[in-house]
Design goal:
This protein has about 140 residues and is of the alpha+beta class. The chain has four helices and four strands; from the N terminus they run H-E-E-E-H-E-H-H.
Length: about 140
Amino acid sequence: MGKRADFLAANRGRRAPMPGFVLLVRERGDGDPAMRYGITVTKKIGGAVIRNRMKRRFRVLARELLPVHGVAGADHVLIGRSEGIERDFGLLRGELEKALHKVMSRPVGETPPRRGSSKDKRKASTGSARMGAGESAKP
């Protein structure tokens, strides 16, 4: 994958967060059974040496596991997390297998339930009265 639009489209697909990375998978629906992958590691993770090391590790994992466990006709995106920098390669391999199985187990149209948004939480909390210092609750 090389175009920014492909990465943004994958962000609307299914996701499987793991300690070392986040896996995004989105079926393209264009009839092409080819599996594509992309890797993203931001500057927040570290300098160029660290980012390139993570990308090399992710590339090896993707080439090894996607042909076996990947979704045919889909885009796969690995987003690096800071916990993945010094993570054991065997652990990363196991996490990617687990993430691919997790994504495959969910039906195509189904998205995981979303947690309540912060806006909903604010509405719920504004309904209660707050007491300041020295105030007491009256029955």
